[in-house]
Amino acid sequence: MLNKVPEVTIWFWVIKVLCTTVGESFADWINMKLGVGLVNTALIFTAVFVVVLAVQLRLKRYVPFPYWLTVVVVSVTGTLYTDILTDQLNVPLWISSAVFSVLLAVVFGVWWLRERTLSIHSVTTLPRESFYWLAVLVTFALGTATGDWTLELTGWSPGASVLLPLGLIAAITLLWKFGANPVLSFWLAYILTRPLGANIGDWLASPKVAQPGEPTGLDLGTFTTSLIFLGLILATVVYLTVTRSDVTETYEAAHAAHTTGDPRKERVALAGFGLLAVATTGLLVWAHGQPHVGPAPEEDNTSAVQMAPGQAVKKFPPAKVAALKNLASTSLKDARSGNAKGAHAAAQSLRDLWDADQASLQPLDQTGWTSIDAQMDKMLKTFGIDHSNPPMSPAQQEKELNALLTDMG
User: Fold this and answer.
1) Where do the record's region annotations for Disordered lie (predicted)?
2) Which of 128, 218, 263, 313 stands the most exposed, by the fewest C-beta atoms within 10 Å?
C-alpha cells in the first residue's frame, strides 16, 4: 500500500516551517495591504483549500508539489479561522485555545476509534487521509491561538518570540531520540511549527524601530517575505521531486521502521513531556508578571492635545497615510450606503493596518500618533471592534469616521 504522506526527515520540518511562514505573511498582505478584509480573505482561501484538497485526495501516492501546496493553503486557512474568532467575534485567545484543543482531541479520538492508528506513516486510505488533513487544519488553528495568546501574555518582541517554540521543538526532539512515542512527539512538534513559522514571518516583516529598547524586525514587509519564502519552498519541492528523498513507498516499510519502541523509555519520556509542560507554564506565568507592553487598553482615549487637520500625520510617510485614509473612506462610504458588513470589514482592516504600522509611525511623532490613535479608538468603538459594546448607529459611525479623516487631513 502506498503512503500519501512524506517521510519525516529534516526536509519535512524545514519545508513545513517555510510553508507556515509564507502562509502567515501572504494572508497578512492580502488582508491588510490589499484591503480585502479578514472575512473575505478567509472565504477566498477556504475555496482554494477545497480545490487543492480535492486534487490531493484524488492522488494515489505522495507527490511533493500538490501535497505541500495543500499544506501552504491549509496553514493560511486555519490561521484565518482563529483570526476571525479573535478580531471579528472578539473571542478571547484562551477560549479559542481551549476550544481548538478539545476539537483536536475529538478528531484524534474518532480517528483512533475508526483506524486504530494516528501515525502519518499509515495514511494509505481515503478515510485516514481525510482525518489527517482535518487534524492538520485544527493544529494550525490551535497553533495560531496558543501562539498569539503567548504573545499577549508576555509582550515578547517578534525576534524573542521565536525562541520559545524553537526551544520546545528541540526538547521534544531530544525526548523522541531518547525513546518517546513517535506519534505523540510528531503531533506536538507539528503544532509548535505554526507559532514558530508565524513568529519568524513577523520578525522578518516587522519594521525596524530606532528607539532603544523597542522590538525590531528586519523590515522586509509581508510581500517581500512571502516572495522569499515562496522561492525557498519552490526550490525545496523541486529538490524533493528530483531526489525523492522524502518518499516512503509502502505502509509496510514505514510501519516496520516506526512501530518498535521500549515501553519503559516511552513512560519516562511521557513524564518528560509533563515536566516540559509545567516548565513552560511557569515561564509564561513569570513572563506575564514582568513589566511589558501588552495590548492597548480598551478605553476611550480622548486626546488632550488638539491638533489642526493634517497636523497629526505631517511627519508620517504620505503613502501610509494615504492607505489609512483609503480604508477610512471606504468604511464611511459603506456606512452611508447602508452596507453595515462592508463598513465593519473596512474599519477592521483599518485597525489592522494602523496596528501593523505602529512600530514605524509612533517613533516619528509620539504626539501625532497618540492623537490619531485616540480618534481611531473612538471610531472602532462605534463598530464594536476591540470593545465589548455592540455596534452603534450608522450616524455615529459616520461622525467618528469623518473626524478621523479630518485629523488625517
Assistant:
1) 388-409
2) 263
